[in-house]
Amino acid sequence: MTRRDILTFFHEPFSDAFYFGPEKISPAHLRWPADKIERTGRGNCTYEDVLQSILSAVKDSTKRIFIKDMSYHIIPPTHSSEVHPPSLQASNSSNKFSNPTLLPTEVIDSFKFVFLIRNPVAAIPSLYRCFIPPLSAQTGDNMLDPTELGYRELRIFFDYLRDKNGEVPMLIDAEDLLSNPEGVLRHLCTHLEFPYDASMLQWPSNEDRDFAFSLFEKFAGYHEDALNSKGLVAKPKAGVETPSKEEKDRELEAKFGKEGIAIIRDALDMCQKDYEGLKAFRAIV
User: Fold this and answer.
1) Which spans in 83-148 are helix H?
2) What pLDDT shows up at residue 208?
3) Phi, psi dihedral angles at 11 (to 5 degrees)
4) Please, what's the largest Cα pairwise distance for the chain?
5) Rounded Cα gap, residues 180 and 149, in angstroms
6) DSSP labels for 116-128?
7) What's the CA gap between 118 and 34, in Å, rounded?
8) Rounded distance, CA 141 to CA 175, Å?
9) 35 phi, psi to nearest 5 deg
10) How far is it, in rounded angstroms, from Cα 99 to Cα 160?
11) Residues 149 and 270: beta-carbon distance below 8 Å
């Protein structure tokens, strides 16, 4: 997001339709405060609206387009190819038998995808914090929804692109990125034919923070660590000794209690196999 001079950014644009609009798929609105959707200003946003805003930027902008989003925002929880948002019915491709997403195949084919994964052992406890005090006061939610963990949908989409295109999409593991941010970012830039600049690893200015806040504000409470950071600094990978399940459970119970650890453990059991399957294809730098 530091390269606003040559990039136009979209941060989770399909979440507007997934969570807030008339075609919303997520059940989260049933447990949210009554005015949350109204406060976002996105209550009328359809999948077609989101898609057209992106395609308009592609057509009109002299900059390249960068979109960060979640696979589960465009792959229904049922994983059924028969589910289509009404606003996209007219534009869906007839040759869509294997496309697992809600989007037309010709749209999928027009973009280049890079996948980012994180070990659920680190990701799930971090996400769970958003549903308990004090962060739950900001997020307005108090439930970790197992249909919105995203690993299954990410693997479905990854496998679809790999099988369809006959090549492995670029996939980055967050642990590799954090241990070697410059090397991984250089590798990514080469893959995307994008000029690398060291400034991409630092965002110290108030202007950078204000821009990030403008993108993240619809999901208050979920990006506090990112908003409070000023850059990516290399962190050594953990030692070869991995804590046992029992040791990890004791650590999680101390932080989240017995109820919390039960929820986290169920989520980990749902995600770990898909994470390991994806990790086998990660880029090695």
Assistant:
1) 105-108, 120-128, 136-139
2) 86
3) -105, 110
4) 55
5) 26
6) EE--HHHHHHHHH
7) 33
8) 28
9) -100, 5
10) 7
11) yes
Q: How far is C-alpha 272 from the geometric centre of its chain's CA atoms?
A: 17
Instruction: Determine contact, residues 93/104, Cβ cutoff 8 Å.
Output: yes
Beta strands in 195-258 (DSSP E): none
| Distance separating the N- and C-terminal Cα atoms of the chain | 23
Distance CA 168, CA 160 (A): 10
Separation of alpha carbons 61 and 57, rounded Å: 5
* Alpha-carbon distance values, 269 to 99, 116, 121, 126, 152 (Å): 27, 20, 10, 16, 12
**What Å distances lie between residue 84 and 12, 16, 136, 232, 268, CA to CA?**
19, 16, 32, 39, 29
Contact 180, 285 (CB under 8 A): yes
8-state DSSP, 32: S
Question: In this predicted model, what pLDDT tens digit does every residue of 185-222 receive, in sequence order?
Answer: 999 999 999 999 999 999 888 898 888 888 888 888 99
If pLDDT is split at 50, 70 and 90, which confidence band does 96 have? very low
Measure the CA–CA gap between 220 and 31, rounded to whole angstroms: 16
Which whole number is the average pLDDT over 225-241? 80
**Backbone φ and ψ of 232, nearest 5°:** -105, 120
| Residues, the chain | 285
Beta-bridged to residue 66, according to DSSP, are 9
